[in-house]
Backbone:
């Protein structure tokens, strides 16, 4: 297993443990806090894994269009989507799980900023740990795709109506 994947998958677990520890006294116990955390993580993870790679692929397509200077073949978007989901799914799952775990402390612009930052960092970890030292442009591109996807997903996740007072 790639060492970047291990780091990406550990961070959601740490965020969940922090939420359970921080909210155990408020929610009425560790079991209730853990259940709330699992529910929030599941809904955020589901949204982020379906929307995040799609938005990241669109950002990659637009960046390729801007760098080429001419309009690429529209079927190239299918190729971007074909590679975007396998590459972007793991960082999207981890970003959604972290945002779901930190949901009680996120609102407004803070939620958008944190989701953008986490998406950028997690999307660039695989490129940073697996690339050559001189490939910082690739790292910056993947960070941009993750940031755009994180922003779009947070916009949807935090603007959706909820059943209670958050």
Residues:
């Amino acid at each position: 297993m790639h060492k970047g994947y291990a780091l990406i998958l550990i961070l959601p677990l740490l965020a969940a443990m922090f939420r359970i520890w921080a909210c155990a006294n408020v929610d009425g116990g560790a079991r209730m806090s853990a259940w709330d955390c699992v529910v929030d993580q599941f809904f955020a993870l589901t949204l982020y894994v379906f929307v995040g790679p799609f938005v990241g692929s669109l950002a990659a397509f637009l960046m390729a269009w801007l760098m080429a200077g001419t309009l690429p073949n529209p079927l190239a978007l299918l190729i971007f989507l074909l590679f975007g989901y396998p590459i972007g799914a793991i960082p999207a799952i981890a970003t959604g799980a972290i945002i779901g775990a930190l949901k009680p402390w996120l609102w407004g612009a803070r939620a958008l900023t944190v989701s953008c930052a986490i998406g950028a960092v997690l999307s660039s970890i695989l490129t940073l740990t697996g690339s050559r030292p001189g490939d910082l442009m690739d790292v910056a591109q993947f960070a941009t795709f993750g940031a755009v996807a994180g922003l779009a997903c947070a916009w949807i996740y935090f603007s959706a109506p909820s059943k209670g007072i958050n």
Q: What stands out?
A: The helical segments are 3-27, 30-68, 76-101, 108-130, 136-159. Residues 30-68 form the longest helix (39 residues). The mean pLDDT is 83.
